């Protein structure tokens, strides 16, 4: 609370401080854009060039503001930044955004432009100097039109072939980071838990005990698969992306795969629960085959044969062991 009370209100800033705030904000935004561009340069060089152009525009805005400040107030610019002003828009840390992919970075850039436009409109109302009002109004219009600038840069740097290449790269990265580990987890959770769940079911014919075994097997397998995936590859050399994301995808889908046929045993009647669980198993196996066909380009019939055959063998093993 002490920190909050020490922040200045925007309405209390002098015209010099408003200009200083605009200068520091433009400098920060240019640096953020360059960080984004550097993050994207290896995989999306054309989009990186677009963002470089946006950073260059922010540099131009900053220089115009500095020139005006020197003319009106001299060369010493007060140190005032976003975090010093209560209610002023904040920027998310670069590292929270840059790992979320190219579309998220583009969305963030749009939000940055919108925030800057609103600031300049508010700052224009605070100024009584004609030249300052004109510059701030011009910068508000420039930020409002920044999206048009990005589109113009896109026409220059992002051709149809480049866009196709970037879409393919983004799709490949999505598959490597999310689909592959998630699919591996779903397969493991759906298939590996069949034997213990159905062995317990046929051995005890107790639905609650079966559910508890299924829950433990699913959660345990999910934790194990998640940590194994995250620890197996840091993604630096393989290009498979963040180990945390891959671990989450693998762990969550492993748990989901096991819980799918464990949850029916919340039904008190044994045969109703078992028949429901068997139906769920077939839905899970066909879902795995569909994902393999859609994202991994595996022929559907071959994927279905492999998955269904493997699942049937594990189910049979569990049922025979439990019945014995």
Gross morphology:
elongated
Helicity level: over 70%
Which residues sit in consecutive blocks of at least 5 with pLDDT less than 50? Answer: 1-5
The rounded distance between the terminal residues' Cα atoms is 67 Å
Number of domains: 2
Q: What share of the residues does DSSP label as strand, in percent?
A: under 5%
Report on this model:
The chain is mostly helical. The chain has two domains: 2-158, Ferritin; 164-323, no CATH class. It has helices at residues 2-5, 15-40, 45-73, 94-97, 102-126, 130-144, 146-157, 160-192, 194-204, 207-232, 243-260, 270-295, 300-323, and strands at 8-9, 85-86. A two-stranded parallel sheet has the order 1-2. α3 packs across α7.
Strand and helix map with partners:
Blueprint: H1 2-5, E1 8-9, H2 15-40, H3 45-73, E2 85-86, H4 94-97, H5 102-126, H6 130-144, H7 146-157, H8 160-192, H9 194-204, H10 207-232, H11 243-260, H12 270-295, H13 300-323
Parallel strand pairs: 1-2
List keywords for this structure.
single chain, mainly alpha, Ferritin, two-stranded parallel ribbon, elongated, disordered N terminus
Condensed summary:
This protein is mainly α and 324 residues long. The chain has helices spanning 2-5, 15-40, 45-73, 94-97, 102-126, 130-144, 146-157, 160-192, 194-204, 207-232, 243-260, 270-295, 300-323, and strands spanning 8-9, 85-86. It starts with a helix and ends with a helix.
